[in-house]
Specification:
22-stranded antiparallel barrel; Maltoporin, Chain A; mainly beta; 10 helices
């Protein structure tokens, strides 16, 4: 962790330099906004929160220029990482985000305080977040958002499983009469990746006692390609060509949200909100040369570039009643259904084992994740003889989850007998889900919680929470949290939290079963993910999964020495025992022979989930905001800094079955992904200057270095820190706003990958895939855009 001597100049720089959070209102009014995340007491503001919390508003999101919610959050929050991997199957279109360097599924996402369902995808390829099934943040239209509250603290005792790294609560717009519409278009400076974004929202009255707020967004994004020239196979007809596509997928995304409320009486409200989204994406795989053993020359004389076509559909509906009863008791009862379906198609491909009659397009199957949640929440402010009332909150939750795999058409997975000898079975790039993979598995859980929150004095505040949860597949668990805040003065307060938590392995981590084409060391391997319950997985040393357990501690302060200046600093430590990770890709002749003997011919690699590691994450968050008058205008400045270090404190002994094969269940590649794959630190600066009808914005982000390990230590590479500059200028005329902007205006790229084995060292030293998919800001270069918006 940085020394105080290192931090002091940084804090000073943060107060005098442009930061990343664009702010449209005075700092004082923003810091007085009421927050609802991390507490069930009423009336707490951002600076009064007992836990670290960030509040982001629509102007903040719009200032990033991004059409994706997850990308906008990564530019605004120093502690959030959102890489843009490529050549990772379905992960190209449903990308995972990390908070404080932890797994994407260790962050709980709420919408209007209700648990959001996770995506059906399981990230099993070589990306940050490998092995996780995260919430698809990009299924939520930006136009629907009134604000986002990000709780950077463990909160399992308050909200249940998954809230180890923190909580992201998306609060929807909800009012009649107002609305907006916007149109944005842009393109990367390399000449590709054209984007069109149409969004808007509108509120309507429902009689005299209700309202309905509708919002939607349509995004059309063409693919990008940063692949190099292919010099791998002299003599092949494809030699010296740009055969591959390495970059963003070709995407069409439609997303809608509806939010409604009706006052049934002065004391009772009915509320409901619903979401539907559909994303069609086409991502490229690895090029198969004409002479490749898995090509049929009569079908593709010059080889082929296979395409994975995914269709992701989200749908959700939350409905409930809330009100206030006699004695001031606040109550809320709700039902919450959410689901994500991910359909896999393969195009421009073949199944070489079927010979010249092979189809070239395949239905490879489907994944679906469903969630049904019923909640009851009750709270009241009671007089217990203290200086202030005590907020007593309690309630319960029932959750039912189902994970389903549907098989693809037979030609997408079968091993034919009339094709190329030794050819891999199934569709090239993504063999379909087999009948043996297919099935539907479920579980349910019950939980109850109790929470107390009060201001003991005008200076000392505290809260305590406890939760009991019982899973049908993991048994029961209990967690608790203690939080304190002491105001030394009106301008300075100390705060700290201590909690324990848990995360139950997802159903996908327990039951996902599929074969993937994985690029390892420049070669393609057919690697199969085995559920731990299968005999073949047990023969590999797999054991039944158990829940992760965490301990969180934080200590920090909030300072507001001036009405227009604020500073927060928070230290944290997160210990996670029995962390669920995906094992290394176990490949080689011995594994291939072993799998063939187990009934999996043509598969030359295997992996499974395991509770093999314990980790410790330590770090610091620093945030500052300052508003100053500058001439006839106003200048909003803010700065953010995050330092985050994860180390592995324990690795379970290797399974004897793997020792016999000469493999490590958790090796240096996976260790490096967990401990060094994400940037160790991140700095954000930004400024927003408004004068008259004009607005000028600048954001500057420094992504620290990260390291990608390989099986051979000689091939490890550390990628240097990079500065990314975002610029935008806006002009407002009446209700119209016109914006021109450039993200990554200086056209910065990450360091190129050292990989002479995949290219001609004289002409293409970085080979085909010039950049790492671990890059925290992608590798597309500068993006220039224009936007016009109308509000009423």
């Amino acid at each position: 962790m940085p020394s105080p001597a290192t931090l002091s100049p940084l804090l000073l720089l943060g107060l005098i330099s442009p930061p990343v959070l664009a702010q449209s209102e005075a700092t004082t009014s923003q810091l007085d906004d009421i927050v609802v995340t991390g507490t069930r007491a009423t009336g707490r503001t951002e600076t009064q929160s007992l836990s670290p919390i960030d509040v982001l508003r629509p102007d903040d999101l719009a200032a990033t220029g991004s059409t994706e919610l997850a990308t906008a959050l990564s530019r605004l929050l120093p502690s959030l990482n959102f890489p843009r991997p490529s050549l990772t199957d379905g992960t190209d279109s449903v990308r995972p985000a990390q908070l404080r360097g932890l797994s994407p599924d260790q962050v709980l996402v709420l919408v209007n305080g209700k648990r959001r369902h996770t995506a059906a995808i399981l990230n099993v390829n070589g990306t940050q977040g490998r092995g996780s099934s995260p919430v698809d943040l990009n299924a939520i239209p930006i136009a629907a958002i009134a604000r986002i509250e990000v709780l950077r603290d463990g909160a399992a005792a308050q909200y249940g499983s998954d809230a180890i790294a923190g909580v992201v609560n998306v609060v929807l717009k909800g009012s009649p009469g107002d609305g907006s519409v916007s149109l944005q278009g842009g393109q990367y400076s390399a000449g590709d990746g054209r984007q069109v974004d149409l969004g808007g929202d509108a509120g309507f009255a429902l009689g005299e006692r209700g309202w309905l707020h509708l919002s939607g967004q349509y995004v059309e994004a063409d693919p990008t390609n940063r692949a190099g020239v292919d010099f791998r196979f002299p003599g092949d007809v494809s030699y010296g060509r740009k055969n591959h596509r390495f970059g963003d997928a070709d995407t069409r995304n439609t997303k809608l949200f509806a939010n409604a409320q009706i006052d049934l009486s002065d004391a009772v409200q009915f509320y409901a909100f619903a979401n539907a989204s559909k994303r069609d994406a086409e991502a490229a795989g690895n090029y198969r040369q004409a002479g490749n053993a898995n090509n049929i020359v009569s079908i593709y004389p010059e080889g082929f570039l296979p395409i994975i076509a995914t269709e992701s559909e989200d749908r959700s509906l939350v409905a409930g009643l809330r009100g206030t009863s006699a004695g001031g008791w606040r109550w809320d009862v709700s039902a919450n259904y959410g689901a994500n379906t991910l359909d896999f198609g393969v195009r421009n491909s073949l199944n070489a084992s079927l010979g010249p009659t092979s189809p070239t397009s395949f239905d490879a199957g489907e994944l679906e994740n469903e969630q049904l949640v019923v909640n009851l929440d009750i709270a009241n402010d009671l007089d217990w003889g203290l200086a202030n009332p005590v907020t007593l909150a309690f309630g319960g939750e029932y959750r039912d989850e189902t994970y389903t795999i549907r098989a693809g058409e037979p030609s997408s997975y079968i091993a034919g007998t009339g094709g190329v000898a030794g050819a891999s079975p199934g569709a090239q790039v993504f063999p379909g889900f087999q009948p043996g993979d297919a099935g539907s598995n479920g579980r349910d859980s019950y939980s109850a919680y109790l929470e107390l929150d009060t201001d003991f004095t005008d200076r000392l505040s505290g809260s305590v929470a406890a939760r009991y949860e019982d899973y049908s597949d993991f048994g029961d668990t209990a967690s608790g949290k203690l939080a304190l805040r002491y105001a030394v003065s009106d301008a300075f307060a100390l705060r700290g939290t201590l909690s324990n938590g848990f995360r139950a392995p997802s159903l996908a981590q327990q039951y996902y079963s599929a074969t993937s084409a994985v690029l390892i060391g420049g070669s393609i391997f057919e690697v199969r993910t085995f559920p731990v319950e299968l005999p073949v997985a047990r023969a590999f040393g797999a054991q039944p999964l158990k829940a992760e357990k965490s301990t969180n501690a934080s200590l920090g302060f909030v300072a507001q020495p001036l009405d227009n200046l604020s500073l927060t600093v928070d230290l944290y430590r997160i210990d996670i025992d029995d962390r669920v990770v995906l094992s290394e890709n176990l490949t080689g002749t011995a594994v291939r022979d072993f799998l063939a003997a187990q009934g999996y011919p043509g598969v030359n690699g295997g992996r499974y989930f395991t509770n093999a590691v314990d980790t410790r994450t330590t770090g610091i968050d620093v945030l500052a905001a300052w508003r100053v008058a500058l001439g006839d205008g106003a200048l909003d400045l803010s700065a953010g800094y995050n330092y985050n270090k994860t180390k592995i404190t324990h690795i379970q002994a290797n399974a004897p079955e793997l020792d016999a094969l000469g493999f490590q269940r958790i090796g240096r590649v996976e260790i490096g992904r967990i401990t060094e794959g994400a940037p160790r630190d991140k700095v954000t600066f930004g400024s927003d200057y408004t004068i008259g009808n004009w607005g000028l914005r600048a954001g500057l982000t420094r992504y620290g270095e990260n390291t990608v390990r390989q099986t051979n230590p000689a091939n490890d590479q550390t990628f240097g820190a990079k500065w990314i500059l975002d610029l935008a200028a806006s002009y407002r005329h009446d209700d119209w706003t016109f914006t021109l902007g450039a993200d990554n205006a200086l056209n910065e790229y990450p360091d190129e990958v050292r990989n002479v084995n995949w290219g001609n060292p004289a002409t293409a030293p970085s080979g085909l895939f010039r950049y790492s998919s671990y890059s925290p800001f992608g590798f597309n270069g500068a993006f220039v855009y224009g936007k016009v918006a109308y509000t009423w």
